[in-house]
Design a protein that fits this description.
single chain, alpha/beta, TIM Barrel, 2 domains, eight-stranded parallel beta sheet, two-stranded antiparallel ribbon, 14 helices
């Protein structure tokens, strides 16, 4: 497959494994890249820039194909040393960065000066246009179906993708709600030049999370997600386990909810422990509505080859109708 996305990123197929906290580690990243996609290390899964340097080295030992690093920039009382993470990415010769959260404009000049292509993920057209003006190379437009943070506008991909393709001059990657070649064909038909998947790559053999988590998500339906942090204007879509349901109940209490009321439930360390130990009800598990489309746990190579074949077949089928 050849699109502007494959040409800019250097991958065989325009299939990107998005950044996933605790999940985007070397084993998964290398497997995606070896299969022809674009794997992404999640920078903030690594506790320090030095540890990120080692994770980049570990990934390089597992693949000779291009891969990138996701750097999510979030507001925080005590923010991570983002500039140092950027320095580590540049120093290790990474050529693709996926940014998300706040605008990456403070770092774009440094990335550009070092030949690094920037994919910025956003959930609205206004933010996509702003990112384009700031000099990013590709926009990943994230629909309301997605796992993680879908923004506060509640616009689905079927509307966002063609809007972005129409409004932007730079290439668009469709993100959220995609798990197979049918979704990929739909995204391409809507004007995207690639797709981004997170939840689908969680349910692969190489994803470094416990089988119990994968099995629970595989057996869930499209109705088994919840929106948390809704009242805090920082909405996140997660798997509807006991922790998520308790958070939603607390947020619905009369008088409102403060973050301190739910902090003990949503701690990142608690979520990571649940993923690694297979405690399905033990912590927040990020997942998108796309879990309703997933019914197996293939290798990354099997998944990507199947997606590409199915995408081509679906596009041929659509053309035949004309």
């Amino acid at each position: 497959m050849k699109t502007r996305v494959t040409e800019l990123l250097g991958c065989r197929y325009p299939i990107i494994q998005g950044g996933m906290q605790w999940v985007g580690r070397a084993e998964l990243v290398a497997a995606v890249s070896n299969a022809g996609g674009m794997g992404m290390i999640t920078a903030l899964t690594q506790p320090t820039p030095d540890v990120l340097r080692r994770e980049i080295d570990r990934t390089r030992a597992l693949t000779d194909q291009p891969f990138g690093v996701n750097l999510t920039i979030l507001p925080a009382v005590k923010a991570p040393p983002y500039a140092e993470y950027v320095g580590a990415i540049i120093e290790k010769g990474v050529r693709v960065v996926e940014t998300a959260g706040n605008s990456p404009r403070d770092f774009i000049e440094r990335f550009e000066a070092n030949g690094i292509k920037v994919v910025h993920k956003c959930t609205s057209i206004r933010h996509a246009l702003s990112a384009e003006r700031n000099g990013v190379d590709i926009i990943s437009i994230d629909g309301f179906e997605c796992a993680g943070h879908p923004g506060e506008d509640d616009i689905g991909g079927l509307v966002l993708i063609p809007l972005a393709a129409k409004a932007l001059k730079i290439p668009v990657i469709a993100s959220g709600g995609i798990a197979d070649g049918r979704g990929m064909a739909g995204a391409l038909a809507l004007g995207a030049e690639g797709v981004n998947m997170g939840t689908r790559f969680m349910l692969t053999q190489e994803a470094p999370i416990h089988y119990n988590i994968k099995h629970a998500l595989m057996n869930a339906s499209e109705q088994d997600t919840r929106l948390i942090f809704r009242t805090l204007r920082n909405t996140a879509r997660v798997f509807a386990n006991a922790v998520a349901k308790e958070v939603v109940e607390i947020e619905r209490r009369p008088g409102g909810c403060q973050f301190e009321d739910i902090r003990h439930l949503v701690l990142g360390a608690r979520g990571r422990a649940a993923l690694e130990a297979g405690e399905v009800e033990g912590g927040v598990v990020t997942a998108g509505q796309v879990i309703g489309l997933i019914d197996d746990i293939p290798t990354c190579a099997e998944l990507i080859e199947r997606m590409v074949e199915e995408c081509r077949a679906q596009l041929d089928r659509a053309r035949a109708m004309m």
